[in-house]
Each structure stands twice: as C-alpha cells, then as structure tokens.
Amino acid sequence: MNHIRFVHLLRNTLLAALLTGLSSLALAVDKHYTVTAPDGVKLAVQESGDPNGPALIFIHGLLGSRLNWEKQIASPQLQRYRMITYDLRGHGLSDKPDSVEAYRNGRRYADDLAAVLEATTSKRPVLVGWSLGGVVMSNYLAAYGDAKIGGVVYVDGVIELNAALITAHPHLYAGLSSEDLKTHLDAVRTFLGLCFHTQPDAPTFERLVSSAAMASWAMTRATPAMTVDVAKGLPKAKVPVLMLYGGKDELVNLQPSIARARQLNPRIQSKVYENSGHAPFLEEASRFNTDLAAFMDSAAIAAKSSE
Question: Which pLDDT value is given to residue 21?
C-alpha cells in the first residue's frame, strides 16, 4: 500500500512540475499588438518576459526598432520582468507618415510613449531609452512628469541636438537625408557601423541594417530639427535616473552630455563602459543586463520608500 501511495505521490509531483513548466513557458510567449497615438499613428508594440513582473519599456534610437533589444529580450536574467518594446513612429512596423511635421515636434513622441504606457497599464515602469530614445524620454518628462514611471535609464542618450553634444559627421547626415537611393543606403550602413566599437556578428548587423533601411525618409530628414525639451523635462525627474554611455561612442560626446544632464538634475548617476561604442546593450550585453537588473531593484526600493 505504501508503495502505491508513493507512486501516486511521485506521479502528482511530476505532473505539478510539468504544469508549472508549461505555465512558465506560456508566460514567455511574445505578444504583438498596436497602440494608436493621439494623432492616429499606429505604433507596433511587443511584450515578452513575465507579464506579472515589474515593467520595463525599451525605446530604441534613430533608424532602430525592437530588434535592437534582442539581447535583453532573450536574457534569462531579465525574464522576471515584463519587457515592453515598441517601434517609434517612422520605424519598424509602426506607421510612417509622409509629412515631416509628424516628426519635427518632439511632443508627438512624448504622446506616443504616454499612449503606450496607458495601453499597457504597466505600473510605474522603468524607461530605457537608447540614443534618440533619450530625447523621447526627456520630452515625455517635460510633458507628463514622472508620476507614472519608476525610473529612467539613458543609454548613450541624446541630451540635446546641438554641436557640443553630438559628434560632427556632416557628410554622413547629408547622406541619410539624400534622395538618391544608393547614397542613402550607403549612409545607413555607415551610420550603423559607427554605432559599434565591437561590431556584432554578421547576421545581427545585416538584420539591423535591413531594419534601418525600413525607416521613413521623412522622419530621417526631420530628426535634426526635432524639438527637445530636456531643460524642462530632466529637472522633473525625482525618480532614479541612470546614464550609461560607451567610452568609445563615435556619435555622442559622452562627458559633455553627462555634464549637461547633471546641470539640469544633479541627482543623476552615471556609468561608462570603456570598451563599448554607442551600443553597450549589444556590445557588453551581459554587463548591461546585470546593471539594468540592479537598477530595477534600486528603483523598486526607492518607490517603496516614497509611498
């Protein structure tokens, strides 16, 4: 009799473990849907990780897409979080309006992010913005403040679109704005190459180039004149703010950028990845993911202490 009970107990234990494993696997299935911005632009949104975990919203940079964050989305270390990515207007699978006016006003990007926050009903998510994604976050803070977010991470973030903070590449940016297809595509490839000190493997690089080539030309032309309300936005951030930069960034001048940000908000913390270029989340993904998880923990502690 004891032997029979043991067999039943073992069977039930194995069945429970199997169901738990299948449940965890189901939680990891990606979700894809669209969110409509106030001006009607449809934004492609994706989710992965634990839908019940603390939320992270990743915001890519110029000529990027959700594909930029693949080493975060696939990281076992970050699976406990609800990871939300979306393609900026004019990028990836999101709508691409033809008018430059759809991109020149930075408030539109802030409204896009606000729409994603509302649609996902995420509770005080941490925002992670790369490059131009930093502008999006600053404009969001200027328009909406920090009441609905738990923290902000600038990753080689653009603080302001001015010559003191952006490395000069006049021929490159002229090529990106060119109406000649070959000139434009060659500039796209050069731009992507400058994002890395340590180049990614060939399939990853080609995928990122292909994604960049999908971006709206109207958006690319409008971006240099995009409004950036950082002077109003960053001082509003009372939540934790971390700035991560690659020490070998060839697109953003990191020390002047950090200095300008701290001038606006002295509470900002910063880290420099000496062996990375403009994309430390890809070049030193393991270190980046560890730092991001630690920031998530510290932001959660800060949120509890402020309640």
Answer: 40
Q: List beta partners, residue 152.
A: 127, 241
Q: Domain range for residue 267?
A: 29-306
Q: Per the domain annotation, does 21 fall within a domain?
A: no
pLDDT band at 307; cut points 50, 70, 90: low
Q: How many helices (H) and strands (E) does the chain have?
A: 13, 8
Query: How far is Cα 113 from Cα 32, in angstroms, rounded to an integer?
Result: 16
Number of domains in the chain: 1
Place of tokens 């297809």: 181
Q: How far apart are CA 7 and CA 140, in angstroms?
A: 59
**What φ, ψ does residue 199 adopt, rounded to 5°?**
-70, 140
H-helix or E-strand containing 272? Answer: strand 269-273
Q: Kindly give the interhelix angle for 181-194 and 202-213, rounded to the nearest 10 degrees.
A: 130
Beta strands in 110-262 (DSSP E): 126-130, 151-155, 241-246
Consecutive H or E run containing 19? helix 2-27
